[in-house]
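From the methods appendix. Each design record in this collection lists the tokenized structure first, followed by the designed amino acid sequence. Records were kept in a plain field format so they could be parsed without special tools. The example shown here is representative of the layout used throughout.

RECORD:
FOLD TOKENS (348 positions):
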């Protein structure tokens, strides 16, 4: 398989991505952790700002929880930010702030799993390694027509084929190969849509030649069911006390841990297993609505306003500790921020 076309296409279209300029191992670690579960478009808007706040492992290791959450704002899945800080602490304490070059030592660092380790070696160090996530798994299964169910088994097979040089035997740059395959998975070779006519590898792609790329990777029936999206209707309550809006902090172990939110309840949900917020059967007249989305949920948010006494009467079981929103409060959850902004516009 000739890779020139693929690499040239990737370089031409995506070398502008901020984490691809002035590559460092630290930048690779930060970008790869941000890119797990967050789109390139969103990471693009946050990566450089994060690096200005925490330019190296030493600064990140010293960050307070508050500073970290503020710098991570907008990226979601805050557990990743804490994980990143833990990795920085270990590298500073045990490795003098250097990244070990040996993949087995890298893998021994808490928070660095097989994907991140391969990304650091393949992309950060430009050594022979493939950062196989769901994107690469899909692209490679299609390119080489690998008929194994997606997941650990398929990933193992891809790593085995790659280590034995049965796939990609001659590679000019492992960094460029990883990046280009990621680009392909994000653009032309998506899970539910393959734009093969535009793909730089279409002449070499076995699935395309056979005419059935969307059949791969094989998916278990169980996973097909899991992928179904859910509709949620939430009510977000703006409790007003002396013209100030009340918020409470999410506790350790709760969804959005450490962030401040307005009290939020589930009005309707197509997901019976949803536990993130309590349900309510009260009826409300909403001031306004707005839509958000997270993981498999499409969310309709309804905003209601009430004073503290009304709130206590309706929700006597609510245990959050209040604090008022004063001026610019930066550690509010994204949906709460939207709710408050919308409410203020409505009132002005
Ligand atoms: S030709 Fe189609 S199936 Fe093959 S890698 Fe390209 S986009 Fe994916």
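DESIGN:
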């Amino acid at each position: 398989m000739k890779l020139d076309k693929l690499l040239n296409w990737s370089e031409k279209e995506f070398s502008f991505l901020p984490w691809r300029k002035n590559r460092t191992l630290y930048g690779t670690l930060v970008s790869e952790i941000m890119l797990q579960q967050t789109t390139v478009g969103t990471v693009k808007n946050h990566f450089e700002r994060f690096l200005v706040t925490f330019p190296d492992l030493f600064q990140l290791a010293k960050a307070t929880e508050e500073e970290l959450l503020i710098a991570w704002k907008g990226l979601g899945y805050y557990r990743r930010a804490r994980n990143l800080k833990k990795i920085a602490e270990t590298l500073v304490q045990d490795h003098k702030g250097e990244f070990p070059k040996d993949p087995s030592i890298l893998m021994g660092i808490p928070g660095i799993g097989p994907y991140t380790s391969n990304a650091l070696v393949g992309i950060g160090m430009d050594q022979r390694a493939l950062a196989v996530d769901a994107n690469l798994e899909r692209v490679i299964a299609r390119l080489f027509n690998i008929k194994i169910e997606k997941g650990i088994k398929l990933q193992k097979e891809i790593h085995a084929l790659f280590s034995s040089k049965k796939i990609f035997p001659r590679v000019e740059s492992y960094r460029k190969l990883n990046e280009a395959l990621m680009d392909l998975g994000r653009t032309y070779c998506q899970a539910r849509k393959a734009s093969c006519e535009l793909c730089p590898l279409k002449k070499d792609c076995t699935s395309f030649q056979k005419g059935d790329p969307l059949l791969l990777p094989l998916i278990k029936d169980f996973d097909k069911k899991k992928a179904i999206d859910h509709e949620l209707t939430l009510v977000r309550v703006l409790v007003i006390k002396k013209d100030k809006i009340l918020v409470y902090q999410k506790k350790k172990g709760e969804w959005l841990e450490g962030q401040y939110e307005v009290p939020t309840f589930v009005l309707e949900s197509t997901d019976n297993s949803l536990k993130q917020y309590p349900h309510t059967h009260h009826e409300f007249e909403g001031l306004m609505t707005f839509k958000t989305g997270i993981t498999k949920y499409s969310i309709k948010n309804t905003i209601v306003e009430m004073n503290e006494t009304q709130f206590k009467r309706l929700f006597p079981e609510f245990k959050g500790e209040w604090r008022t929103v004063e001026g610019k409060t930066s550690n509010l959850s994204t949906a709460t921020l939207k709710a408050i902004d919308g409410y203020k516009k409505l009132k002005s």
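APPENDIX NOTE: Strands lie at 230-241, 244-249, 260-261, 264-269, 288-294, 297-307, 322-324.
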